[in-house]
Model the fold of this input.
Amino acid sequence: MDLATLIGFIAGSVIILMAIVLGGDAATFVNVPSILVVVGGTAAATFMKFPMADCIYALKTGVGMAFKDDMQNPSELVERIKDLANRARKDGLLALEDEPVNNEFFQKGIQLCVDGQQPEFVKKVLDNDMEKSIERMELGAEIYQGIGDAAPAFGMIGT
Done:
């Protein structure tokens, strides 16, 4: 889990709760009809603009990316590639079959090589996977931008 995201989430929540507790009246801070207008209106506008399956995928991916720290260090990945290349040169491609690799994209490339696929085919498959991944990430960004565009308008309506 990404520590900075967790700290920010907890700090923000604590500050809001302290403001409510110290402010006296929770009704000043929490207005259920306004919350329904903002959250419901933003969700409705987003669902009108994007397919439901894309919205659900973007929500799952966005929350997962915010709270998971699974980014790999590029220099560590390069070192791992060099180690595997040396092993393949020394022991052959089949030696890589049982090597643990914690990167799905990289693992797929290794498996295609171990399976004896031609380099052009491996490149084509991995290029296609990369393009699809980029398209999904761009769509997710577009959905979150749509949420960001709609939420302030519904916030004004809700107040």
Summary: Residues 74-132 form one domain. The CA atoms of residues 15 and 21 lie 10 Å apart.
